[in-house]
Design brief:
heterodimer, A: Alpha-Beta Plaits, eight-stranded antiparallel sheet, 17 helices, about 20% strand, B: alpha+beta, Alpha-Beta Plaits, five-stranded antiparallel sheet, 14 helices, globular
């Protein structure tokens, strides 16, 4: 992480006092007992307590805190619900952690323009809960939707199982209000579709808290589909499952969700949640369609045909919503199911072209043998997002090291076959050193120049996303090759 | 530039000319590096179907990408196509057609308006303008279909962002930023575009003779319906003559609501729409697939304005504001039609002056919307804002421009003075 400024550590009391003049003193936390809960996010392998935690309640307060920190060169790490899986909200020892927890209200539901205006720390699921009475919902549904905040979703451009048909966060928001590091309050987009000029809404979405602090979000809501049906299909080989996916899409069917699990995960989740999965199958697929009854019927029939052609060994169509949810119950319990199998697991998040699934899984099997660590694979087949769950023991240093190396090799392979380092979890601290595998110097430097245009002192969430190495003179450019060690100052287990 | 590079440069492109039409990327890079070194502003053009949109600006040379074409990779089962930026929409669409796929964002064809004949433009131009067609409210805008790009920044460096997969959150999403940037940030070289299957069937419900308020109510109901339409337009009576179809007998204004999908679902969904809208049998007609396609292609080509002699504005407001905005605009001599279920107003004015533009801008900003001047009398062009921007965003835009193009050599001033 960036070098800790010892002078700031010494000024902790003064900084706390200064911020207490901006916001109510009870919203400034500095005692170790108060700040300890903020030491990590969903990437729990890394912990660090911040200098102090500020809990602003209004946009003006956010703006004044940022302005104060900018003028005094104090680093700021913004945080929503803290469920992120790549360490994007991991505090720095000398930072003010800007916890947005008090921005927890839905401000307006506007059915006429089919949108909801909300504060950033409202959870993803509660947006749907607020509008479902009128037959609407908010489409992106990350697995953590019960806990993750919409502001965090914007910062990470979160996806979910329905991304192929409905897109990720970036395709489902209309506007945001943002505070820049210098305290500037501005809005990008609004209730209208598209906005003119440079697409700052698109730039901010997925920028992992490096460019601005999100203080309000306008999301698009959709009419809930009339019918949703799912099919549960077993295949004798991964190749058959992969071919089936390709053919479904080539035939013009766009499923709402399409998931594949390998044998290891099918068995683990079935044991855990008794979902009725075909545990003898090498690969299992859940494919879901939504729409009007006839529409869904016609797609499901097509899938049946295609599955049979691709040697499916079992096929079940949901007869009721309860049965459909049961199909999903196992998949959604993938994490706890792996938790039963090993003391720890690390969830990777690569993106690959759908057609490369079999090839990538073969490589993962090879690596699993090489590192002698078991792995189970979940794949959002619809959108190519692969989540290998590597099982290890965090108490064993060697096991953690091997797991990290294993994970890095998987991600590099994803990039090699034409995919991406991260499909939906973000780069954070977890994958920043791999950025050089995905991008060349010019690519990264262009991104860093954008960062320094909006945050010249690099105070907002520094140390995340981009590799931190020695600086050279021009425009805050950095060399991204050579002489690097991985996370040298992060505590290791 | 080394001696060797200089020689290469001279062999492929003569730098003394004022128009470059490179056929390969290394030539594009060389031209940009030379312009960077010598501070030479460039106008970047593709098929020139809409290059007159934007402010007039001084450029010494023109970089014409219409020769930089070709499909690099098309993977129907992966739902993407990767093309060189100068490739025409026509070529892309006909390639996709072979696999029964399409560009779902239905780019507008501005050719009729600006050139008097159809010209759908190049993919680079379409992305640079980010003007999306009637499916906007269902499938998103052009920018939502840009999976990744490669471009040359103002320092002559080749940069990329995104890729060919739909889910990718690695680094800043620059694909969004370059969409709608009117060629002011990078010279696009390659684009990876998401493609989607063509719907099996498509039909259109025409509701006859609604007045504006009723039409907006219908469109609002339709867009909130589980019948899941993919287009919603309103044409006032004056344009009725443009829609002479066998199945249409009525006179007066009309709205068109498109429903697409598997054949067996269409009738049911149309029925449902009629019920939800509460319309009676003599109030509507259905356009079957062929006529329906013609109807939407007329919309895509802005055909009602094809004889356009006056000025054209593209106005976007939240749909709930459209009625009031139109009422307020009626004091000027306007013609208009609505797309995007009422959110997009194509506004034509025979006569315009600076004072009017200012007033219109105020009406639209007060309605939380924005407008872009697409066509205006030449002598007015220099004295009005083509795009709308507030001072805060102007400042940010200036910084972003500088980060890509520090010497302002790409389309300088095309969007805003100083950017």
């Amino acid at each position: 992480m960036p070098k800790v400024e010892n002078s700031l550590l010494l000024k902790k009391d003064k900084i706390a006092a200064d911020i207490s003049r901006i916001i109510s003193p009870e919203n400034v936390l500095s005692h170790i007992d108060e700040i300890k809960p903020y030491e990590t996010d969903g990437l729990t392998a890394y912990t660090q307590v911040p200098l102090l935690v500020a809990l602003p309640e209004t946009v003006k307060e956010v703006s004044e805190i940022l302005k104060y920190c900018n003028e005094n060169k104090i680093k700021v790490v913004p945080r929503g619900a803290g469920t992120g899986l790549s360490g994007g909200a991991l505090p720095l020892a000398d930072c003010v952690l800007l916890a947005m927890g008090k921005f927890n209200k839905i401000l307006e539901i506007d059915y006429k323009n089919r949108c909801v205006v909300t504060q950033p720390c409202v959870t993803n699921l509660s947006i749907t809960n607020a509008v479902q009475g009128n037959g609407f919902y908010y489409a992106p549904d990350p697995s953590s939707q019960i806990a993750c905040s919409i502001g965090g979703n914007v910062a990470e451009n979160s996806g979910g199982v329905h991304s192929l048909k409905y897109g990720a966060t970036t395709n489902n928001i209309l506007g945001i209000q943002v505070v820049l590091m210098d305290g500037t309050i501005t809005t990008f987009g609004g209730k209208a579709m598209d906005s003119e000029g440079y697409d700052f809404l698109g730039l901010m979405t997925g920028s992992e808290g490096l460019l601005g602090v999100i203080t309000e979000v306008t999301v698009k809501i959709l009419k809930s589909p009339e019918v949703v049906k799912a099919a549960l299909v077993g295949f004798p080989t991964i190749e058959d499952a992969g071919n089936c996916v390709a053919e479904i899409i080539a035939q013009g069917c766009i499923p709402a969700g399409m998931e594949i699990m390998d044998k290891a995960l099918t068995k683990a989740t079935n044991d855990y949640s008794k979902a009725g999965y075909p545990t003898d199958a090498e690969a299992m697929m859940i494919v879901e369609f939504d729409g009007t009854e006839h529409e869904v019927e016609s797609y499901i029939n097509k899938v049946k045909e295609i599955a049979e052609k691709n040697n499916s060994t079992s096929l079940k169509i949901s007869k009721s919503n309860a049965e459909r949810l049961k199909f999903w119950a196992g998949r959604k319990a993938a994490f706890p199911a792996c938790g039963v199998l090993a003391p720890d697991y690390m969830c990777m998040d690569g993106s690959i072209p759908r057609g490369k699934l079999a090839e990538v899984l073969r490589e993962i099997t090879r690596l699993s043998k090489k590192y002698n660590l078991p792995v189970a694979n979940a794949f959002h087949a619809g959108d190519g997002n692969l989540h290998p769950l590597i099982m290890f023991d965090a108490n064993d240093k060697e096991s953690l090291r091997k797991c990290e190396e294993f994970g890095a090799e998987i991600l590099k392979y994803c990039v090699k076959v034409g995919g991406a380092l991260t499909g939906e979890h973000g780069v954070g601290i977890e994958k920043r050193e791999l950025m050089c595998d995905a991008f060349n110097n010019f690519d990264i430097q262009q991104q860093l120049t954008i960062k320094s245009a909006l945050d010249p002192n690099s105070l907002l969430n520094p140390g995340k996303v981009y590799p931190i190495l020695r600086k050279c003179a021009e425009e805050g450019r950095v060399h991204v090759h050579g002489g690097k060690t991985k996370f040298p100052d992060i505590p290791r287990f | 530039m080394s001696m060797e590079e200089k020689q290469n440069f001279q062999t492929s492109q003569d730098f003394s000319q004022s128009l470059f039409k490179p056929k390969n990327r290394s030539d594009i890079v060389k031209i940009i590096k030379e312009c960077y070194k010598k501070n030479i502003p460039l106008e970047i053009v593709g098929l020139k179907s809409k290059n007159t949109i934007g402010r007039n600006f001084q450029s010494e040379k023109t970089l014409d990408l219409s020769g930089y074409t070709g499909i690099i990779e098309y993977k129907p089962e992966e739902l993407y196509i990767k093309v060189k930026a100068g490739t025409s929409i026509k070529e892309i669409s006909s390639e996709l057609e072979k696999h029964n796929q399409q560009l779902a964002f239905e780019p507008n064809d501005f050719g009729n308006i600006f050139l008097g004949k159809s010209n759908e433009g190049s993919i680079g131009g379409v992305v640079s303008c980010n003007f999306s067609g009637s499916r906007r409210f269902k499938v998103g805008s052009v920018r939502d279909h840009v999976l990744g790009f490669q471009g040359i920044n103002g320092r002559g460096e080749t940069i990329k962002s995104g890729g060919t997969v739909v889910k990718n959150v690695t680094g800043y999403d620059l694909s969004k930023l370059i969409s709608g940037s009117f060629g002011t940030l990078t010279v696009l070289t390659e684009l990876s575009i998401k493609v989607l299957p063509k719907p099996e069937t498509s039909k259109t419900l025409i509701v006859n003779n609604p007045h504006l308020k009723k039409a907006l109510d219908y469109l609002n109901l339709a867009l909130s319906s589980s019948a899941d339409p993919s287009g919603g337009v309103f044409y006032p009576e004056i344009f009725r003559k443009n829609f002479i179809f066998n199945d249409l007998t009525q006179e007066g204004a009309l709205i068109g609501i498109r429903v697409e999908g598997p054949a067996n679902s269409i009738e049911v969904r149309l029925d449902r729409l009629c019920k939800e809208l509460g319309i009676l049998k003599d109030e509507f007609s259905i356009l079957e697939q062929k006529q329906s396609n013609i109807f939407w292609s007329k919309t895509r080509q802005l055909e009602v304005f094809s004889q356009l002699t006056g000025n054209l504005l593209r106005v976007v407001v939240p749909a709930s504001e459209t009625f009031n905005v139109i009422q307020k605009l009626k004091k000027y001599e306007i013609n208009y039609f609505l797309d995007w279920g009422g959110s997009l107003i194509w506004l034509q004015l025979d006569k315009i002056n600076i004072k009017m533009i200012r007033e219109i801008k105020e009406i639209i900003s007060n309605a939380s919307g924005y407008f872009t001047v697409l066509k205006i009398e030449e002598d007015l062009k220099a004295s009005i804002d083509i795009f709308t921007i507030d001072p805060v965003k102007y400042k940010i835009s200036e910084k972003i421009k500088k980060s890509f193009d520090p010497k302002r050599i790409f389309n300088p001033g095309k969007m805003y003075s100083g950017v």
